[in-house]
Design brief:
The complex is a heterodimer of chains A (224) and B (239). Chain A has 224 residues and is mainly alpha-helical. Chain A contains ten helices and no strands. Chain B has 239 residues and is mostly helical. Chain B folds into two domains: 60 residues; 129 residues, Tetratricopeptide repeat domain (Serine Threonine Protein Phosphatase 5, Tetratricopeptide repeat, Alpha Horseshoe). In chain B, helix 6 runs antiparallel to helix 7 and helix 7 packs antiparallel against helix 8. Classes of the chains: A mainly alpha (224), B mainly alpha (239). Chains A and B meet through helix 4, helix 5, helix 7, helix 8 and helix 10 of A and helix 1, helix 3 and helix 6 of B.
Chain lengths: 224, 239
C-alpha cells in the first residue's frame, strides 16, 4: 500500500512520525477510490427513469406523492390539483434525468417537492386563485432555479411534437422508443411482419421530421 | 432539404439510443464533429424520440393516477357501495350479453373465419408504394384507409384480382358482408387467379355471416376445392 503513494510521498526513514505519515498516505489514496466505486452506478431510480421503467414511476409516485398532496391540500388545493402538480413535477424530474442534468446526489423526494411547491405557488398566484390563502412552508428552501431554465419550454415543445402523431404511429413508436420493445416483439403483438413494423416506424418518424422541418421553414421531399 | 434515407436514419437512431458499439460510436462522433448537417439531424431525431418517450410517460402517469384512486378507495366508507355496484354491473353485463349475444350464423362464421394475414410489406418497394401503404393499413385494421387507397388503384386497373381480393377481404373484416361478397365472387369466378380459391371461401363465409344460408349453399365448390369439405360441414352445422 505504501507503494501507492509513490516514491515522492515516502516519509523520512527511522522516525516515529513515519508510521503516522504512512497511515495518512494510505487513507489519502484509498478513500477516493472507495468513494468513486460508490458513485459509478447511478441510483436505481435514475437508471429506472432513464429506461422509462413504469415500476420506477409507480415507486416514486407511491413514496413522494403524499408530501405533495399534503402541501397542496393545506394551500387551498384539491386532491386532483395535487395529482396534476405531482405529475408535472415527476415529468420535470424525468426530463432532467434524460438530459443528464440531474445531480447524482439529488434526492428525488426533495426535488419533486420543491418543483411541485413552486408550480403550485404559480397556480395560486394566478388570477383565478387570488382568493386562496397560502401557508408558506419555510422548512424548504425556495429553489425555483431548479426548473427556471428552459425545461418548461422544452416540455411544451415536446408535447406539441407528440400531438402531431396519429394513433397508428403512436401505437408503434411508443412500443419501440418508450417501452423499448424490439421490432420482432412489436410485430408479434400486432400480428404483422417485423419488416412492416420497421417500415411503419421509419415512415412515422419521417412524417414527424417533415412536419418539424416545415415549421422551421425548410422544404421536405419524400424520396424514401 | 432532401429526405433522410433509411440507413442514415437508423444509424442516427442507434447512436441516440446508445446501441452502437464503442468503435462505431467513435467513428460516428468523428463524423459528427465535422458534419454540421448530421449534427442537426441527430438533435432533431433525439428530440423527436424524447417527445415520443414523453408521450409514453404521460400515459404511464395517467395509469398510476388511476391506480392511486383505486388504492385510496380500499377500506374507505364507500367501498361497500362499490362491491354492490360491481355485483349489479356483472348482472347487468350478463343480461346485456344474453340479449345481444351473436346469433347462430354469426357464431358459425366466427368459428370458421380466420382473416387473411395480408402480403409482406417490402421496404424497398417504392414502385408500388401506394399498394404497400394500403397493406400496412389493412394489417393494422384501418379498413377505410386500406379500401380508399386500394380503390384508387383499382380505378386504374379494374381487372387487378389482387386489389379486388384484398378490398373484398377488408370489407369482410370490417363486417360489410354484402360488399365483400360481390367483390370476392368476382375474383372467385376469375379463372387462373391465384386468389380464386380463397376468395370463394371468404365469399361463402360472408354469406353465412349475413344469414343467407340458401345463397351460401348455392356457392359452387368443385370437388377438389381446398375448402369444399369445410363448406359442406358449415352448411350441415347451420341446417
Amino acid at each position: 500500500m505504501v507503494q501507492e503513494g509513490g516514491p515522492d510521498r515516502s516519509p523520512l526513514p527511522g522516525t516515529c512520525a513515519r508510521t503516522t505519515d504512512l497511515r495518512i498516505i494510505v487513507l489519502r489514496f484509498t478513500l477516493p477510490v472507495q468513494a468513486k466505486a460508490d458513485i459509478t452506478a447511478p441510483p436505481a431510480w435514475v437508471s429506472g427513469l432513464q429506461r422509462n421503467d413504469p415500476k420506477t414511476v409507480r415507486l416514486l409516485y407511491k413514496e413522494h406523492f403524499t408530501a405533495v398532496k399534503h402541501y397542496v391540500l393545506k394551500n387551498s388545493g384539491t386532491s386532483s390539483d395535487a395529482e396534476d402538480i405531482f405529475q408535472e413535477a415527476l415529468t420535470v424530474l424525468w426530463l432532467k434525468v434524460k438530459e443528464g442534468s440531474m445531480q447524482e446526489a439529488s434526492e428525488p423526494g426533495a426535488f419533486l417537492f420543491r418543483v411541485a411547491k413552486y408550480k403550485w405557488l404559480d397556480v395560486v398566484r394566478s388570477a383565478a386563485h387570488k382568493h386562496m390563502r397560502v401557508l408558506h412552508d419555510d422548512r424548504q428552501p425556495d429553489v425555483r432555479t431548479d426548473v427556471q431554465d428552459d425545461t418548461e419550454e422544452k416540455l411544451a415543445r415536446l408535447r406539441e411534437v407528440y400531438a402531431k402523431l396519429d394513433d397508428k404511429c403512436r401505437q408503434v413508436l411508443d412500443q419501440f422508443y418508450f417501452e423499448r420493445k424490439d421490432l420482432a416483439t412489436i410485430a408479434a403483438g400486432m400480428g404483422v411482419e417485423e419488416e412492416s413494423i420497421r417500415t411503419i416506424k421509419y415512415r412515422c418518424m419521417m412524417k414527424l421530421r417533415a412536419s418539424r422541418k416545415t415549421i422551421a421553414g425548410d422544404e421536405y421531399t419524400d424520396e424514401a | 432539404m432532401s429526405a433522410l434515407d433509411k440507413p442514415t436514419f437508423e444509424r442516427i437512431e442507434a447512436y441516440v439510443l446508445g446501441r452502437l458499439s464503442a468503435d462505431e460510436r467513435l467513428a460516428f462522433e468523428q463524423r459528427l464533429s465535422t458534419d454540421a448537417a448530421l449534427r442537426a439531424e441527430v438533435e432533431l431525431e433525439r428530440e423527436n424520440i424524447m417527445a415520443i418517450e414523453l408521450g409514453g410517460l404521460q400515459r404511464v402517469l395517467e395509469q398510476v393516477r388511476g391506480e392511486q384512486v383505486i388504492e385510496q378507495g380500499h377500506g374507505g366508507p364507500w367501498i361497500s357501495y362499490l362491491k354492490y355496484a360491481a355485483v349489479v354491473a356483472v348482472l347487468f353485463g350478463a343480461a346485456l350479453w344474453f340479449i345481444a349475444r351473436p346469433n347462430a350464423n354469426e357464431r358459425t362464421f366466427a368459428a370458421h373465419f380466420v382473416p387473411d394475414p395480408g402480403l409482406p410489406v417490402a421496404m424497398s418497394a417504392s414502385d408500388d408504394h401506394a399498394f404497400h401503404d394500403a397493406m400496412v393499413a389493412y394489417k393494422l385494421g384501418d379498413h377505410d384507409e386500406a379500401i380508399s387507397k386500394w380503390s384508387a388503384l383499382l380505378k386504374e386497373e379494374p381487372s387487378n384480382d389482387t386489389l379486388r381480393y384484398y378490398i373484398g377481404c377488408t370489407e369482410l373484416n370490417a363486417g360489410r358482408s354484402d360488399r365483400a361478397v360481390s367483390m370476392l365472387m368476382s375474383v372467385a369466378d376469375q379463372s387462373g387467379s391465384a386468389f380464386a380459391a380463397k376468395a370463394r371461401w371468404y365469399a361463402f363465409l360472408a354469406l353465412v355471416r349475413k344469414g343467407d344460408v340458401a345463397a351460401a349453399r348455392a356457392v359452387p365448390f368443385a370437388i377438389d376445392h381446398p375448402y369444399a369439405a369445410r363448406a359442406k360441414s358449415v352448411i350441415a352445422e347451420l341446417e
